[in-house]
């Protein structure tokens, strides 16, 4: 029997009806002593951090869309608006506005976290035990937000992690203090990853597990929990090629029994499966953490470029790659959830499956708010994929265990599926293709290609023209050594007075 979904909104709900005083930091020069002087003000600052996560430069926009558009998952349609065209064409300069926006927004979020953490350190000396415990929760959330932000900066602006060379590769500028940021200089890639791990370790001591482990309900969370901490641990360790650690932390999430893969065959009502409900209404049994929206406070429109629907016709900027569509078996019910066949409104009349996955939350659509979907930054399915790959990547591979995880995932997605079989010869093809099927347009592809390229498992990618796509960019061969797998550091960051930030190879 499917357990009920428990929707946690304790802190995040307030974020959509109030403005945090922390939104003034670090952009506005208000004296530090005039803000976050009480536990309640610290609570409001945490709410501000959650609210900032809605920024369309992050998960409801650029940080989710651009890594997949830059790779090989979608094609620009003839007649498109040129939205993100430079990214899609690999014409990426240090002055690119999207590159600047992602970098600046993540660093601004880190600044908010640093300010709050400094103020919490002061308040900890002044409060009673009850308020001290509240502050520990707030600290855990701020530490996690900082760890997540740095992990995403590393993902976009640093090379793939190689344990043998990470100490000599450029990482990110690490700032742990709001009042004393120090010299703007990039740490090593090894130290940058260690900073993320240290933040996660501290966050884990503050964010306690569910007190009622036998509670018969699933999470569907808008705020950070220990399960999100473990999910990010697993993701980071996979990138670091720490296979046993990736398995350990993915297992903590999977074995917690607080999440269940949303089935494509079990129905929430007569017409809608649990899997369809996850994308149509943004509630599910497998969401570990999502960015919460309401119809009066939301972020970007993930589906806009895939539809551009004006209540009359569809003029998508981008359509799914044909090779991706061909990956789905007839019994794979993700395909009918993700893609719907439409005739576009262009003069050329292209008829193609469009990305229905991001058509938008139906409750928002009823308010004439189109293509808005709550970003599901951590889902249980990713943890199964992390663990399956890590089992196969180990020096002594455990293909059977990897196959069990792949089987579990597919049985939740197919109308009828038996069992997967992984071997030394086929494991990479099976798992890499499954990551495309499951995580399509959720922002993983560019980093996957980058890390697999570093390991010698792929050599970049090739685009081949398909119907009614623009010529420039549709015949593109990108080798794994291409420096633009790593985004350039924004030029204004390099030009700041006193900056010692080193450029990437892609800056040159």
UniProtKB/TrEMBL annotation:
<dbReference type="Pfam" id="PF14322">
    <property type="entry name" value="SusD-like_3"/>
</dbReference>
<keyword id="KW-0732">Signal</keyword>
<dbReference type="InterPro" id="IPR033985">
    <property type="entry name" value="SusD-like_N"/>
</dbReference>
<dbReference type="InterPro" id="IPR011990">
    <property type="entry name" value="TPR-like_helical_dom_sf"/>
</dbReference>
<keyword id="KW-0472">Membrane</keyword>
<feature type="domain" description="RagB/SusD">
    <location>
        <begin position="352"/>
        <end position="496"/>
    </location>
</feature>
<dbReference type="GO" id="GO:0009279">
    <property type="term" value="C:cell outer membrane"/>
</dbReference>
<protein>
    <submittedName>
        <fullName>RagB/SusD family nutrient uptake outer membrane protein</fullName>
    </submittedName>
</protein>
<comment type="similarity">
    <text>Belongs to the SusD family.</text>
</comment>
<dbReference type="InterPro" id="IPR012944">
    <property type="entry name" value="SusD_RagB_dom"/>
</dbReference>
<dbReference type="Pfam" id="PF07980">
    <property type="entry name" value="SusD_RagB"/>
</dbReference>
<keyword id="KW-0998">Cell outer membrane</keyword>
<feature type="domain" description="SusD-like N-terminal">
    <location>
        <begin position="72"/>
        <end position="238"/>
    </location>
</feature>
